[in-house]
Amino acid sequence: MFYNEMFEGSEVRAPYAMLSDWVDTMPADMRQMKQAEAEALFRRIGITFAVYGEGGDPDRLIPFDMMPRVFLQGEWRRLERGIKQRARALNAFLRDVYSRGEIIRAGRIPARLVYQNAAYEKAVVGFVPPRGVFSHIVGIDIVRTGRDDFHVLEDNCRTPSGVSYMLENREIMMRMFPALFRNNRIEPVDQYPEILRRTLASVAPAKCADEPTVVILTPGHFNSAYYEHSFLANLMGVELVEGNDLFVDAGLVYMRTTEGPKRVDVIYRRIDDPFLDPLCFRKDSMLGVPGLMDVYRSGGVAIASAPGAGVADDKAVYTYVPEMIRFYLGEEPLLQNVPTWTLWKEDDYKYVMANLADLVVKEVHGSGGYGMLIGPKASKDEIARFADLIRANPDNYIAQPTLALSTSPTFVAEGVAPRHVDLRPFCLCGDRLELVPGGLTRVALREGSLVVNSSQGGGVKDTWVLSE
């Protein structure tokens, strides 16, 4: 049985009361016209995502659902406290494992999960970034299973994407349905770019004397998230640069401009660690800046999020985040993890192998809905093939129960129907922790599907937090 966020029995829940009449009084032809208008706006603005390896044009229009997802203020405040708690613990973990490793010494997390992790960067061991912040934008994926039951599905501590959809979903809804916003008290999200810019400026290195110069470093226009890179640069009023736009000189980083070199203090990087600096990581990288890591380690520039932050969002390390909260903060977790079996443990392995048809199994380093098995939806052949993969490398997998993800009302061809959703809020970490009241709601548009990723047929919708 799935929790329906709109209905409690036959009664419409308070958050959706004002939308019920809106839906009931909207003629089908009006809905179709508005849906076409939304798609035209997305296409005109250029909001696409890329799917590689399937042939043809990889750029696709992300499906947009006009029916917003709604939270009461009290629900959001509870989520906000839990998200901030988790972001604090994750940053404390990163500071620790790149220095003394006290949590490992205390036996709270296995050393091999950290020090043998592909995302652990030895190049930054012993270095503490400005304000001790490693992960500056933490995207935490949350699922709901009941009225008051929220669980964290995974943490994203490197470069979580999707904030452009959060902002554009709101912009398009306000443009198409202004009366909804006039008649309801909906918390704004449009301050996100300014908060992000302030957050990045707050972690400028001590060597920065004047107003910090912030840039966004992109791999270029072929990247699947390039739209978001250029979108955020424009809204923040900062330069969008590629690796060959920057250079290192005398222990500092400079940007090439028509007026001559300009010093750069903070780099919001949207490229992966291995490509940041060919002198430190992959020698064949054409995307990074030679010598960047030397400047970073000497305190000449800040990089957000810090190289090595990815060790905190590994799906195996995820299972220990509640323990991080207890160890570093002395608190009990406000948001619980999804129950998880780790297949390198003998008892967990035996249980999972005996119950594959009932579980969701994920690659430890997988993303985008790939590299996973949804047991109840899989054929016997698919389960058998996945069992072989697990036997070959059990350390590479975790397993979780098939969650009863909540449903949110969604416009479909027949009218309005429940579809499964998740939520990605974005916590900004600098001299303070801040969230805008909302996030990216992803929706599984296929009936019965539990996979919300856009690359797997999912869409997006606006997320409303109602004011008191």
Q: What does this protein look like?
A:
This protein folds into two domains: about 5-205 and about 300-335 and about 405-465, no CATH class; about 340-400, 2-Layer Sandwich (Dna Ligase, domain 1). It contains 13 helices and 25 strands. The chain has helices at about 15-25, 30-45, 75-95, 100-105, 110-115, 165-175, 180-185, 190-200, 225-235, 290-295, 320-330, 345-355, 380-390, and strands spanning about 5-10, 10, 50, 60, 65-70, 135-145, 150-155, 215, 240, 245-250, 250-255, 260-265, 265-270, 300-305, 335, 340, 360-365, 370-375, 395-400, 405-410, 415-425, 425-430, 435, 440-445, 460-465. The strands form seven sheets. Strands 5-25-24-21-20 form a five-stranded mixed sheet. Strands 15-7-6-22-23 form a five-stranded mixed sheet. A hairpin with a 2-residue loop joins strand 20 and strand 21. Helix 2 crosses helix 6 (about 165-175) and helix 3 crosses helix 11. The model is unreliable at about 50-55 (pLDDT under 50). It comes from Paracoccus marinaquae. This is Circularly permuted type 2 ATP-grasp protein. Pfam families: CP_ATPgrasp_2.
Question: What's the arrangement of secondary structure elements?
Answer:
Layout: E1 7-8, E2 11-12, H1 17-24, H2 28-45, E3 48-50, E4 59-61, E5 64-71, H3 73-97, H4 102-105, H5 111-115, E6 137-146, E7 149-156, H6 163-176, H7 178-183, H8 192-202, E8 214-217, H9 226-236, E9 239-241, E10 246-249, E11 252-255, E12 262-264, E13 266-269, H10 292-297, E14 302-304, H11 321-329, E15 336-337, E16 341-342, H12 346-354, E17 359-363, E18 372-374, H13 380-392, E19 397-401, E20 407-412, E21 415-424, E22 426-429, E23 433-434, E24 440-444, E25 458-465
Parallel strand pairs: 5-25, 7-15, 8-9, 8-13, 13-14
Antiparallel strand pairs: 1-2, 3-4, 6-7, 6-22, 10-11, 11-12, 16-19, 17-18, 17-19, 20-21, 21-24, 22-23, 24-25
Helix pairs in contact: 2-6, 3-11
Protein name: Circularly permuted type 2 ATP-grasp protein
Domain Circularly permuted ATP-grasp type: 68-444
